[in-house]
Amino acid sequence: MSEHKGTCFCGAVEVTVSGDPAGMGYCHCGSCRSWSAGPVNAFTLWQPSAVKITRGADNVASFAKTPTSKRTWCKTCGGHLLTEHPTMGLVDVYAATIPSFAFKPGIHVHYQETVLRVRDGLPKMKDMPKEMGGSGATLPE
Ligand SMILES: [Zn+2]
Ligand SMILES: [Zn+2]
């Protein structure tokens, strides 16, 4: 089984993912933007069992502004690690956290909130796909 390791900004916390993700893409929502300080969040979604904190687990802090997203970071450097999505039953390990993993985005979500239009030909969901509790509606690029 393939395994990829990544760390926070300072290296105190290490995350290991194994197997294949459930989905990959870009989130354009205002929460991801505010949290990441970037225009989009590149996400890779995993079953919780596929994600392990393999170093520095006691150095991880978290904050949940809403029940759908518990965002975690390293207490030493503030570097972001992952977001747990309990209602979806998945964990977003930011693509930037696991640089050796080949990021292959398939979708853009929450495109109605975008500040950075991306003309890459991938589907642009207004909010989320139907199977993930969204409207399933798409928007033009
Ligand atoms: Zn750190
Ligand atoms: Zn988002």
Please explain how this structure is put together.
The model has no long low-confidence stretch (mean pLDDT 97). The chain has one helix at residues 30-36; strands at 3-7, 14-18, 23-27, 41-46, 51-55, 60-66, 69-74, 80-85, 90-93, 107-109. A hairpin with a 4-residue loop joins strand 8 (80-85) and strand 9. The chain is mainly beta. Strands 6-7-8-9-4-3-10 form a seven-stranded mixed β-sheet. A three-stranded antiparallel β-sheet has the order 1-2-5, with no helix packed on it. Residues 27, 29, 31-32, 41, 110 line the site of one zinc ion (ZN). The site of one zinc ion has 9 residues, from loops.
From the spread of the alpha carbons, the general shape counts as globular
Strand proportion, as a percent range, falls in: 35-45%
Q: How confident is the prediction overall: mean pLDDT? A: 97
Give the SSE order as H and E letters: EEEHEEEEEEE
Oligomer: single chain
Biggest sheet details: 7 strands, mixed
Based on DSSP secondary structure assignment, what is the total number of beta strands?
10
Helix content bin? under 10%
Class inferred from helices and paired strands: mainly beta
Task: Return residue spans where pLDDT drops below 50 for at least 5 consecutive residues.
Answer: none
- The spatial strand order of the largest sheet comes to 6-7-8-9-4-3-10
User: How many helical elements?
Assistant: 1
Distance between the termini: 36 Å
**What are the bound molecules?**
zinc ion
Tell me the radius of gyration: 15 Å
